[in-house]
Description:
Layout: H1 4-20, E1 30-34, E2 39-42, E3 58-61, E4 66-68, H2 79-88, E5 94-98, H3 101-109, H4 119-124, E6 130-131, H5 140-145, E7 154-157, E8 161-166, H6 169-191, H7 200-213, H8 237-259
Parallel strand pairs: 6-7
Antiparallel strand pairs: 1-2, 1-5, 2-3, 3-4, 5-8, 7-8
Helix pairs in contact: 3-6
Residues 28, 97, 99, 160-161 line the site of zinc ion.
Keywords: Lyase, Metal-binding
Protein name: Class II aldolase/adducin family protein
GO molecular function, one term: metal ion binding
Amino acid sequence: MQTEQEIKELMCDIGRRVYNRGMVAANDGNFSVKLNEEEILCTPTGVSKGFMTPEYICKVNRKGEVLEANGSFRPSSEIRMHLRVYDKRPDVGAVVHAHPSFATSFAIAGIPLKQPIMPEAVIALGEVPIAEYGTPSTDEIPDRLEKYLPYYDAVLLESHGALTWSSDLLAAYMKMESLEFYAELLYKATMLGGAKEFDQEQVTKLYEIRRKMGLTGRHPADFVGQQIPGSEQTGTARNIMDELADKVAEKVLAKLNAQK
Ligand SMILES: [Zn+2]
């Protein structure tokens, strides 16, 4: 069992990793750890997460009210998004929010990460949907995030960034790393002419491996055959281009018909 001080030190260490890997710019990003059912430790707003020391870390209750904050440090304004995850997922012990460039580019382009292209990404994440855009610091983000929480451990936040969660901080951070690596590979493979996707049989085998590994958390593999939020989202730039082409064709036909 880690002490509160050890958890604060780990939060600073994760801050350095997130910053040094370019997963955030300037003072962006935030993460939190559930200490117990009443208390949450969280990173402060307005500071670079790459240069924190333990006294920077703030403590809030489940309503987001400040319990502890040294000097001028104040909890991240995005804490509401974290609290919603803890409310809806009692199994979660830590939440990480960052803006890693490849994953965030997909979030900005409105393309969810759904193509099964490499075993590790399929086993760790499965699919990553996009939660509809919400204004930061308001309840819009937690409200739009909520429907995905029971089914996934990672989401893209439309036109914003990414959010991951897990049983502890290291695991939640690792999910963010896996998510960004998956997005980077998908982007690069698309630039090379398109990723070669696994077929359904290959995906089923990987899902089976995940089950045998006894991995915790939620994953699309646990809901095969069910309609879950995000399953209607299309995952490829090509699909999106096809949809766009269909819409243009519809409009042209409508105009031609009107001219007749
Ligand atoms: Zn953000």
